[in-house]
Amino acid sequence: MTYRIQRAVVIGSGTMGGGIAAHLTNAGVRTVLLDIVPSTLTPEEEAKGLSLQTKAVRNRIVQTGWDRVVKSSPAALMNKKAGELVQLGNLEDDFAVVSEADWVIEVIVEKLEPKQQLMARIDEIRKAGSIISSNTSGIPIHKIAEGRSDDFKKHFLGTHFFNPPRYLKLLEVIPTPDTDQAIIDYIRSFGQERLGKGVVIAKDTPNFIANRIGTFGGAYAMKYIVDNGYTIEEVDALTGTLIGNPKSGTFRLGDLVGIDVMVGVAHNLYNLVPNDESRDALLAPAPVQGLLERGWLGQKSGQGFYKTVKGANGKEFWVLDWETGEHRAPREVDLPIIKQAKKQGNLAARLRFLVNQSQDRGGKLIADTLLPSLAYAARRVPEISDHLYDVDNALRWGFAKEMGPFEMWDAIGLADGVKLMQDRDIQVADWVLALIEKGHTSFYRQDDGANQAYSPVTGEYEAVPSSALKIDLDELRSAGKEVARNDSASLLDLGDGVLCFEFHSKMNALDSEITEMGFKALELLKDDRWRGMVVGNQGSDFCIGANIFMLMMAAQNDQFDQLEQMLKTSHDLMQGMRFSPKPIVTAPFGRVLGGGAEVSLHGSRMCIAAETYMGLVEVGVGLIPGAGGVKEFVRRIITPAIKLAPESDPTPYLQRVFEQIGMAKVGTSAFEARDQGFVTEADRIVMNADELLGRAKQFVLDLAAAGFTPPAREKLYAAGRDGLAAMRVGVWMMQQGGYISEYDAFIGNKLAYAIAGGDLSSPQWVDEEHFLAMEREVFLALCREPKTMERIMFMLQNNKPLRN
């Protein structure tokens, strides 16, 4: 049977249910969100004369839940249009929609009986072949389906999303013994391709994979920290990015999650795993229990491990003192080992160094909390999963870690890790000892270029599954596929005649070496060997803009002739990409700011990750776009509107472009970037960033196969003096209203000049070079301004804009 999810029903509009419904609509799935009917009226409803039969009352609970989703920050919806795909209803009046759904997801109260009752109702009316799943994390999946029809059981499984569903990558799929393998395969594929998830297959055990391992690790560390008197500042300095965790570390993360949630999950797990040899570690230490009793639950209650205090220098983050039970001013962390660890290099080197520094206070904390967690993960296999890669993926995707437990153990060294554990009387799983006895030295290995992981089930190494669309540039580099390289950029052979232009400067900031490599790429494309090119990389962000330090130094040294030439060279590269006779697909993701956005705009097409934050933000450092950004928005927004209606007033379109650039608007998803004009309908949006380069490569091949030809050169609309005056009136009004500073207004007037195409006496149709010349003129003029230099310096020192 062929499965296809076009309509979904989510039952339960709480935080998780609403978030799941939102993310389904992000993926373009029409979704109905249902919840119970209230049993009593609110005072406000009574005052309005409403009754329990009024539709608004009957949908009050689901409407409240959805309103919370729409207002959530960070946003659950990728753009406002996605929310239009959601229909709200209740479980009495609208339950019939279940009969039309391809996928029904239950996200109601964590109690078995209500879930079973709901499943009985669903079983009565669901259409044959529809998929039913539960998002539970604390109730055995197979029990929820007890008593249901054979077809229901065949199509039923657990789908455990992580909160918030849009942002956390992990989706744990939990089949029962009755679940059809075709359903497991389809949901895995749908989750990866349509929802952009990292999918792991978990066994039907308490808390599945990520929360089982993560809860133990967090609870064990918390007890150790309290018992050994480590301060909150010390712990968060040690347990963040230094060891591959999010920068929030241990205690800031606890406050974000909620101390009640953190302790509650651990306590529930304690009750569910009576045979777990380490369950006593799940019980919260007395000081943490004390926070619960006082209602200090973290960020949501205003205080927890941290408390925000208004001090003499502004906002201060005071920390809990374990001895007094009160918050105190933070102290400077005196742990030299942090700097020593950073000098070791990458994460693997840092971990090896830290776990072997047990005589140091910081090293001892890392070794004594990390090693028990790694050993615990091994003791849970194959109880919770048959595959080490699923365990590692679950921890990385569920908690935004750089490495999973077995990857970390390999980094430390398999045998070295065992010795460190045994020295501390930590129980090591029998299968790990057997692995070493066989002469193996790692959990993972490479075999003929393929990644393999050891299987405790078969006692052999097995292939690590990977999407055919996933491309690893470092692996290609290791395989000799790098065609050219300098310090900031490379060209790699992606195969099938597709070249990749990769940035790898610091933060992927644009510089002269990237520009140089770009021209080399255009030259190489002339060879018949190449069918086209992808502009993409695998850094933490696609590109944060130009190297503004280099700009500042040039300006301060009066090197304006060199700056002008640099701008001209940049424009030549962008135009070379735009009019390339072979297709060039840009593949932006993450932060794509300033020059990064301009690079993205100049490909033949864009293949963009859904989670992309794109904007022309140059005004924040006192400049305007200088690599074709103004020209592109004139071309994309203003020119088509005037061509369509030559007698129309251009002011609304001029104002739209002015506000987009002048207010440094950043789209918070690829869909918002499309609404703003960066992304066109001809471009492709990719939900799973892991597949971005592979899909961009395929886009190049599709364009080449379709007989790609470059766009014709066109004339652009220059509004001239009248349009410039209209925009300047807007700038004056904003300054008079106190919304912008005097220098903001100065920059705004310069930007308006560029957008209008200069002080032309009347509107004209001009070539693209005219607008590029405007960009260079204004950009260079702003570089001569002391206040622009102040803005650049402030950004470099503080990583935020100055409004001088």
From TrEMBL:
CDD domains: crotonase-like. It comes from the Bacteria. InterPro entries: 3-OHacyl-CoA_DH_NAD-bd (IPR006176), 3HC_DH_C (IPR006108), 6-PGluconate_DH-like_C_sf (IPR008927), ClpP/crotonase-like_dom_sf (IPR029045), ECH_dom (IPR045004), NAD(P)-bd_dom_sf (IPR036291). PANTHER family: 3-HYDROXYACYL-COA DEHYDROGENASE FAMILY PROTEIN (PTHR48075), 3-HYDROXYACYL-COA DEHYDROGENASE-RELATED (PTHR48075:SF7). Signal peptide: none annotated. Residues 9-204 form the 3-hydroxyacyl-CoA dehydrogenase NAD binding domain. Pfam families: 3HCDH (PF00725), 3HCDH_N (PF02737), ECH_2 (PF16113). Keywords: NAD, Oxidoreductase. Residues 208-307 form the 3-hydroxyacyl-CoA dehydrogenase C-terminal domain. This is 3-hydroxyacyl-CoA dehydrogenase. Residues 504-630 form the Enoyl-CoA hydratase/isomerase domain. Belongs to the 3-hydroxyacyl-CoA dehydrogenase family. It catalyses: a (3S)-3-hydroxyacyl-CoA + NAD(+) = a 3-oxoacyl-CoA + NADH + H(+). The gene is fadN.
